[in-house]
Design a protein that fits this description.
Layout (H helix, E strand, L loop, with lengths): L1 E3 L14 E5 L7 H6 L2 H10 L7 E5 L8
Parallel strand pairs: 2-3
Antiparallel strand pairs: 1-3
Amino acid sequence: MFVYTPPCYESSGNAKYPVLYIQHGGGEDERGWALQGRTDIILDNLIAAGKAKPMIVVMSNGNCKDFT
C-alpha cells in the first residue's frame, strides 16, 4: 500500500484531511499511480498552486491472488 500525504501534513498537528482512495488498472499493483502516474509530484504542484486542497491519497493493491 502506498499513502501520499501533503507537504503540510507533518506540521499540521491534529488537522483533518479528506482521503482519496484510488485503484490501479488491470495488470498493475499499488505502485502504478505513484511510479507511472507521479501522484506525489502532481498533487504537490496542484496544492501549491491552490488548485487542489491538501488531501491524503491511499493507493492499495486490489489484486486478488486466488479467484476460487
